[in-house]
Amino acid sequence: MPALKLYRLYISRDRKYARVLHNMLGFVPRNLSLYKLAFRHKSVAPQLKEGLKNSNERLEFLGDAVLGAIVGEMLFKKYPYRDEGFLTEMRSKIVNRNHLNQLARKIGIGDLMDYDSRMIHNPIKQGSLMGDAFEALVGAIYLDQGYVFTKEFILKRILKPHVDVDALEQTETNFKSKLIEWCQRHGKEVLFELMPNEEGARTKLFTVKVFVDNEECGTGQDFTKKNAEKTAAEHACALLGL
Amino acid sequence: MPALKLYRLYISRDRKYARVLHNMLGFVPRNLSLYKLAFRHKSVAPQLKEGLKNSNERLEFLGDAVLGAIVGEMLFKKYPYRDEGFLTEMRSKIVNRNHLNQLARKIGIGDLMDYDSRMIHNPIKQGSLMGDAFEALVGAIYLDQGYVFTKEFILKRILKPHVDVDALEQTETNFKSKLIEWCQRHGKEVLFELMPNEEGARTKLFTVKVFVDNEECGTGQDFTKKNAEKTAAEHACALLGL
């Protein structure tokens, strides 16, 4: 093991944090402050300057883009005979908020997260906290180690052990039943409300809003009521981080 | 100049094409077939297998993702004190269809494009042909030369000479006047139509549709009529590739 790695893991002031990250990620990060930032939710972030908190949101922006490119290339190469519509759909199954929340939990991001503890028992507020932090982590790794390293990390350490891409190909996520089950489990009332049609509209579009405990959580619009409900439920699932 | 480069530019069977690309891109590509594919619109693409044409659409999917990551990082580093909302907006000003169409024309993609010539005089059909090919080109360069090279290429050869990021920061694109001007110049009739409100809807949303020569080109929905028109015009500009 090179001297610098040894130093970071066993001698430096931040050695404990470095070892935790080493266990989680499988490599020794260089710039620890990037990782600390990735796990800092805006609810506890200090003001950096007017209108900007020193939270993980900027890293999330970067990580989202890098993750999209990495997963996009993986799918492009894995499916040489599928069109771009299929590739787009598959990518969104992998990088959607719900799935990223699960991935983040699997690799144990929760233990490192820094956020206002009042959010813990409010799933609506907590929402996509974990998935956002996962994206921010990807941004941190990218800045710390570069694109090629980040790609290797995502492919070998995240996708290979945690994501069954072939199974995802078969699933069509049923967001409506997912939402209803979640509400039953958490004792919340869920309501799908069909909004009246536009009067004299040329197309017959259905608009459905979904309310969880009277709080509007999503809207969907489509040519069938069923599809409008589906979209509304999908939005609600994303909002609730399911 | 290394022997392989010389061979590609002056001896190989495809030397003419290699020299054209060299002039346009500033480097000698390795795998020319990737670039040919990037410039092949689906209107002239051969069937690869059922449901899939051998066109540039898959490369466009890949290039879109890679370009998003590269531009995202550039903005992340250029604006250390701006939040992710600003970064997202700036990126979309750079990589939106209209702007990519312009960029593609600037670097001369039109001369290399392979598409059904019946589309030439139909701007609605032509739409974002050039911008799509630009993204596909980014995908081709990425597969041919890797991420670091592609990033250098985009930053030095595209963004630096062709995009004034500071000026873009100031502009708020006025899509409505852009659309109207374009229609006047091309002798087309443009019509913004306010659709009737939803009866009994809780919120007072305005829906505006825009028609160019009686063809619906975009819809917008917002709480003010003006903003709904703006969104509708933006969609129409994207569709028309303005």
Automatic annotation (TrEMBL), chains A, B:
PANTHER family: RIBONUCLEASE 3, RIBONUCLEASE III. GO terms for cellular component: cytoplasm. Homodimer. The keyword rRNA-binding applies. It comes from the Bacteria. It comes from Solitalea koreensis. Digests double-stranded RNA. Involved in the processing of primary rRNA transcript to yield the immediate precursors to the large and small rRNAs (23S and 16S). Processes some mRNAs, and tRNAs when they are encoded in the rRNA operon. Processes pre-crRNA and tracrRNA of type II CRISPR loci if present in the organism. The keyword Magnesium applies. SMART domains: DSRM, RIBOc. It catalyses: Endonucleolytic cleavage to 5'-phosphomonoester. This is Ribonuclease 3. It is found in: Cytoplasm. Pfam families: dsrm (PF00035), Ribonucleas_3_3 (PF14622). CDD domains: DSRM_RNAse_III_family, RIBOc.
